[in-house]
Amino acid sequence: MSGSQPQPQMRAVIVAGLAGAFLLGRGRTEGLMLMESSPEGAWRSFVAALICLPAFVGIRLISWAAFGLPDGGFLRGLTAELTGYAIAWTAFALLSLAIAQSWGRTAEWPRFIAAWNWSNVVQYLVLMALMLPGALGLPDSIAQILTFAGLAYAIWLEWFVSRHALGVPGTRAAILVGLDLVIGLFLGGLIRTLSEG
């Protein structure tokens, strides 16, 4: 095909996405320059879901070790969690696209979703790192503070990425963070229902 652009190698996409995410995770907007801004690049950024998967499973295992397995057992609980995981990545992308379109930010959405997806890697690593000490015997009160700090950081990072990648005011960025939280709450209920025996 004569007019088509060559597709970047996936390794280069991953390296750039992770480098950008770690810059964004430190509050540095230049991380956005490492994110792909095409619709194809937005699709490629979903490889971040595969990279996050081990941390996601690890967090669930830590939670189950602390609070017990779901009523339906390990396999059913894991299946429900993985189903929710896939739905969460997809639902947020589709709903955020509709919101970006309504705000007149359609052109910015591919870079936004790429930055959002890659930043999830940072969020999962931070949450995992802050949950591990509790799993290894740190007193509950300190473990809870660390977990809360990790969640607060994740919320800030989502807000920061939304605000700068879409170029919207802080209140609109907060709407996208709220959307993610609502999706999480809905899926939490669905996962509990699916996990029961």
Provide a descriptive summary of the structure in words.
The chain is built from 7 helices and no strands. The protein is mostly helical. The longest helix has 29 residues, at 74-102. It starts with 9 loop residues before the first helix and ends with a helix.
Give a topology summary.
Layout: H1 10-24, H2 39-44, H3 47-67, H4 74-102, H5 109-135, H6 140-166, H7 170-195
Concise summary:
With 197 residues, the chain is an all-alpha fold.
The helix fraction, in percent, is over 70%
- Give the terminus-to-terminus CA distance: 54 Å
Order of helices and strands: HHHHHHH
Strand content: under 5%
Q: Give the number of helices.
A: 7
Oligomeric category: single chain
What's the Cα radius of gyration?
Answer: 18 Å
Mean pLDDT: 93
**Could you give a short account of the major beta sheet?**
none
Structural class: mainly alpha
Low-confidence stretches: none
DSSP E strands, number: 0
Q: What form results from the Cα inertia axes?
A: globular
Protein traits:
globular; mainly alpha; 7 helices; 197 residues; 0% strand
